[in-house]
Specification:
The longest helix has 18 residues, at about 255-270. By secondary structure, this protein is of the alpha/beta class. α6 packs antiparallel against α8 (about 255-270). β5 (about 115-125), α4 (about 130-140) and β6 form a beta-alpha-beta unit. The protein has helices spanning about 20-25, 70-85, 100-115, 130-140, 160-170, 190-205, 240-250, 255-270, 290-295, and strands spanning about 5-10, 45-50, 55-60, 90-95, 115-125, 150, 170-175, 215-225, 230-240, 275-285. It has 2 domains: about 5-175, Rossmann fold (3-Layer(aba) Sandwich), CATH 3.40.50; about 190-295, GMP Synthetase, Chain A, domain 3. The chain contains 9 helices and 10 strands. The relative contact order is 0.14.
Length: about 300
């Protein structure tokens, strides 16, 4: 019988290269929010894949970017701290760029410095020709001794199983760190906060989304008069300016209703329980530079 293996794997890459889409496909459950806007992931999310002979714990890190606030600095610090403390790094790049971009070069230099086992993932192969993919593979081969280079399309689920096989091959024997029915260590509150934020990112205009964060003040499970379980959830969307508050609420409350309805429908599926979701919008200027708030996004 094959020896059981386990280990921690960091997914690292620039913003918007498809890290969160990939982690959801690898796990087969939604654990990371996915929106076609940069810097969507703010915290490090652990996601668990249980296989017959292994347990792989993925850590989806915030996208590497040039920080402009304390929040940005914390996100960058988090991504690098994790990369230094795992068994394997999955370095994901957008191969449709056909070059090593400035951001990818910064990550590559960091990988060389910490010298961890690294598997290179070339995402978005559906956007370029096959011969161009081969050129990108050769280009990266000359940069670092990757364990493997795997071309994939996370969006179309191409090559995802190949990644799991490659990781398992490179893991050391070890115990299962989590129960086999778990797929994330996020709490229900964190899931609620992230899904509300995802819907806000999806529906709001460009300038607003990255200036918001969501906090759940109350989350209580109770039984209705019919004996059905229901969560009572009170949450607040904090934004930077009064003008943003108006956009989030929308005319006659239409935008906020759209965000809340969409979040509630998705959360009811995820939590398999009815939700009584109430959401308020409040202004908290400069929250991105307040230590008391930013520390929430540090990796524990």
């Amino acid at each position: 019988m094959a020896e059981f293996k386990s280990g921690f794997v960091a997914i690292i890459g620039k913003t918007n290269v498809g890290k969160s889409t990939l982690i959801n496909k690898l796990v087969g459950e939604k654990v990371a929010i996915t929106v076609n806007k940069s810097q969507t992931t703010r915290t490090a999310i652990r996601a668990i894949v249980n296989r017959k002979n292994s347990q792989i714990i993925f850590i989806d890190t915030p996208g590497v970017h040039k920080p402009k606030t304390k929040l940005g600095e914390t996100m960058l610090e988090t991504a690098y701290e994790i990369a230094e403390d795992v068994d394997i790094i999955l370095f994901i790049v957008d191969c449709s760029k056909k070059e090593i971009t400035k951001g990818d070069r910064i990550i590559l230099d960091k990988i060389k410095q910490i010298n961890r086992k690294t598997i290179l993932i070339l995402n978005k192969i559906d956007l370029i020709k096959k011969e161009e993919i081969l050129k990108v593979i050769d280009m990266y081969k000359n940069e670092y001794d990757f364990e493997e280079i795997i071309p994939i399309s996370a969006l179309n689920n191409k090559g995802v199983n190949t990644i799991l096989e490659a990781i398992e091959k490179n893991l050391k024997p070890g115990p299962a760190y989590y129960d086999i029915d778990e797929y994330t260590d996020q709490t229900s509150r964190q899931l609620v906060e992230e899904v509300i934020r995802e819907k806000a990112l999806k529906f709001l205009s460009e300038e607003v989304p990255h200036g918001i964060y969501v906090e759940v003040e109350k989350m209580q499970l109770r039984n209705t008069t019919k004996g059905e379980e229901i969560y009572d959830v009170d949450a607040t969307i904090y934004c930077l300016r009064n003008s943003h508050k108006g956009i989030i609420i929308g005319k006659n409350g239409a935008m906020l209703k759209r965000i809340v309805t969409s979040a509630r429908m998705e959360l009811e599926k995820m939590l398999q329980t009815k939700l009584n979701l109430k959401v308020w919008v409040k202004v908290k200027e400069d929250w991105q530079d307040k230590d008391s708030i930013v520390k929430k996004f540090k990796f524990n």
